[in-house]
Amino acid sequence: MSFQALGLDAHILKAIQEYGYTEPTPIQAAAIPPIIAGHDLIGIAQTGTGKTAAFTLPILTRLAAGPKTPGTKVLILAPTRELVVQIEENVLAYAKHLPLSIAKVFGGVGERPQIEALRRGCDIVIATPGRLIDLMDQRYGNFSGLQHLVLDEADRMLDMGFLPGIKRIIKALPRKRQTLMFSATLSKEIEALTHEFQHHPKTVQ
User: Fold this and answer.
1) Cα angle at 94 between 90 and 95, to 5 degrees?
2) Gap between the Cα atoms of 170 and 9, Å rounded
């Protein structure tokens, strides 16, 4: 199995080749085609298996094929500042040949640059739930045109008590969207989330 066989956009194939990727990991090979096809997805994968690329590469392919509209099209929620920074580094590498703007939102640093990014309507926002809710409460962030929501390390977010915040964020998003959930385990709590937020999701692990 090659990345070319998965149906990725040519600009993305060029970027990942430059990044040193040669062939997809099992979670990438399993997740990329159904995400490109537009399905909701539950991905059961440990950290270190290439799951960031498993959701980012197909989302970027869909953005590259779609119309250029203003506003945020992708929201990726992650439990920690460190993970947000790591995801952003990967997304910047994969999207280097695409005209997309990317912003990260997390606590422990000044709000001003994050507010400016949300005001501009960056194409992709990568955020921790707590700081994003703070800024949404101040009326920053336009998610009316959102197409893709990713909950990364969903089990850790639940363990850290983010469930009420996640529900508040999702309530503010369009109902018609693609929702991807990645978790190390498929617990009863995660299954309850999938029933609440996803539409006939595919499961890969």
Assistant:
1) 115
2) 29
